Amino acid sequence: MTRTGGGAAPVTARRGATAIARRGLRAAILAGLATASATASGRLTVGDLDRAARARAAILEIDVPAARDALKDADPADLALALERGRLAIYEGDCDAASAILARPDLAATAEGAALGDIARGCARATAATVVVNDEERGVWVRLQDDDDRALVPLLVDVAARTRDVLAKDLGVELLRPLRIDLVRDQFTLSAMTGLPEEAARTTGTVAIAKWGRVTMLSPRATPSGYPWLDTLAHEITHLALSRGTRDNAPLWLQEGVAKREEVRWREPDPLDDVPSADAIAFLGIQRGLGRPLDKIGPSIAMLPSAEEAAVVFAEVASFIRYWTREAGDTALPQLLRRLKDASSDADLERAIAEISGADLAAWDKRWRAYLASVPADVPPDLAPGADMPHRQEVSKRVRLGQLLHDRGHHAAAAVQHARAQALAPHEPAVRCFLAAALLASGERASASPLVERVEDVHSRYGRWWSLHGLLHGGPDGDRAFSAGTALDPLNPDVACEEKLPPDLPGDPLRSALCEAARRRAR
């Protein structure tokens, strides 16, 4: 981690703040153990709590070697240290060991021990008979619930390694190796492994969570048309970096705002990255009562009451962080993270923001809202907060009928139905792709081509739009288009196979393996 300052005074200041933070950790440990009577020896000594606090601080910083060192030769009977041993096992991904540690009755009788035990047991059940791929060279560890997802691992590893490098530059935070990623098959498992209520995950459409020192995310096979899984991975890795860089002291608005900022910085910009604009969605959402004050979002965006509110709050924090970093300067964010690492109260956060950027959070919030009111809020009607696709039922009916006709080989008739749907939803990329595919199957390549030519003609990112664009307009840039498609829907055979028909395969070995995995899934 990059550090600034030097000399005796800064060191003394850092030590004093660390002592305050450690006292906070000791208090948290005592609170977590409040329902237990005592350790097996009959008491908890100050030394026990200091050692447990050191271990917890290391765990929160995702510094496994330091945590292991703090717990080395720990007394097995010591309740506080046993709690941290169980927590560390969860962070290391050894859920069976964590379950065994946290199952002891006196620990299970405590509030925190019981909560961690539930996570450990859920994780142990979910990871039985899983496959682990450990890329030691690049420092990325991936655990797969389904071996059929193995073809995704090279992409996961590549993006994880790139993101780690970008975060070191942008945030001044070095993530230790290995980076741990769990790829799971459904939201039930996502919930069991992280503690997020399954109902909340379904309500807000949550597909990934960074918690317990690792990223847990849904396989793209879990959704009908995939999702931006590689950007999502970068987003969640950013959360891990923020937890490490601030010892988990970053407030939710900062966590989510920075994660939204960083989720696309591992790659080249996409024309649809800011469509619709986060500024515009934040402004309209606030106007419609769907927004939240920055410091009153709640415990998690994933636990907001609706997907619409979640989208607006994400836009709010993304817009605010983009505005604040632009106005305060490039160095403000890394400085703030360093200050938060030793923070012990909200007052420390407020003081850090004011000293680094010249104004407190309330003043910045006021400036940001004034800025929102000054920028254009032109958002396509179907993308506005709480909006729905016009003529949705008719569009769905025409698309479904077209699909049935296409599957039976009536491609010209299918194209007629898809053209009627496309006339009602001209900017919907999926509808354009159905029509283009039907036209291609009918031999009407010239008619299909304009449907996937200009990215400005669509309002959202869609995997097959990019694979068809690569086929019909790729040329020298075809590889980039096919990569954009697999970043969104890698297990769709058309996308993964670059629109090739069996038995043809892409020339690149990694893409060829992905194509074969996608075709196996489709059988």
Q: Summary?
A:
By secondary structure, the protein is mostly helical.
Poorly predicted runs are 1-23, 36-46
Strand content: under 5%
Gross morphology: globular
- What is the number of strand segments? 5
CA radius of gyration is 25 Å
Q: Main beta sheet, described?
A: 5 strands, mixed
Q: What share of residues is helical? A: 55-70%
Q: Please report the number of helical segments.
A: 25
**N-to-C SSE series?**
HHHHHHHEEHEHHEEHHHHHHHHHHHHHHH
Q: What is the first-to-last residue Cα distance?
A: 48 Å
Lateral strand order in the biggest sheet: 1-2-3-5-4
Tell me, rounded to a whole number, the average pLDDT.
Answer: 90
Structural class: mainly alpha
Plain-language structure description:
- 58% of the residues lie in helices and 5% in strands.
- It has 25 helices and five strands.
- A hairpin with a 4-residue loop joins β1 and β2.
- α11 crosses α12 (252-262), α13 (278-287) crosses α14 and α18 runs antiparallel to α19.
- The chain is globular, with a radius of gyration of 25 Å.
- The two termini are 48 Å apart.
Core attributes:
single chain, 523 residues, mainly alpha, 5-stranded mixed β-sheet, 5 strands, 5% strand, disordered N terminus
What's the layout of helices and strands?
Elements: H1 8-32, H2 46-60, H3 64-71, H4 79-91, H5 95-102, H6 105-108, H7 111-126, E1 131-135, E2 140-144, H8 153-171, E3 179-184, H9 187-194, H10 198-204, E4 208-211, E5 214-218, H11 229-246, H12 252-262, H13 278-287, H14 307-328, H15 332-341, H16 346-357, H17 361-374, H18 392-407, H19 411-424, H20 429-441, H21 445-448, H22 463-473, H23 478-486, H24 493-496, H25 509-522
Parallel strand pairs: 2-3, 3-5
Antiparallel strand pairs: 1-2, 4-5
Helix pairs in contact: 1-2, 2-3, 2-4, 3-4, 4-5, 4-7, 5-7, 7-9, 8-11, 11-12, 11-15, 12-14, 13-14, 15-16, 18-19, 19-20, 22-23
